[in-house]
Amino acid sequence: MLWELIATIVAGLGAAGIALAIRFISRKKAPRWLIPVFAGLGMLSFQVQSEYSWYSHQAGLLPEGVEVVRTVEQQTFWRPWSYLYPQTLRFIAADIANAAPNQRNEAIWLVDLYFFERRLSAKKVVQVVHCQQHARADFTTELAIPAPGEAISADWYQLEQNDPLLLALCQLQKV
Asked: How wide is the angle at C-alpha 91 spanned by C-alphas 10 and 109, nearest 5°?
């Protein structure tokens, strides 16, 4: 966050420098108010560019075997441009490469999910996914793992059949 603040200030100073150059070239005929306007536009432009490039940069840093399974796009009134082009400020990635099947029921997989949000640290949550019954649950010591063919308990959350986590994880079962 500190580096982003420093970069924003530098962008403002650079844009103000361009306005100063314009005033110098025009032999001070360009108005003086051009300098703070350019500085403000430079800082705003840098912040907008930073917000829009954050997701692709973070997703590009993920190691091999970690897949993005959900993105959250936001539109806010204080960012009017986000109504034209929504910003991805949060996403969930699953560590598919290190997912492990349950020894008792191979339709159930243990997987680490990573929750990323702009300007916050990533959070890791361990999940249990049932491929046949299209459900997931938080991994706890109290979680009852059903035997093959057995119904799941109320601790499980149903998933859509086309849920990206389910599709990415359960394709491992078919390999």
From this structure: 145
Q: Is 0.85 topped by the overall pTM?
A: no
pLDDT in tens, 9-43: 999 999 999 999 999 999 999 999 999 999 999 99
pLDDT value for 144: 79
Dihedral angle, C-alpha 48, 74, 159, 110, nearest 10 °: 40
Two tokens at 79?
């960012």
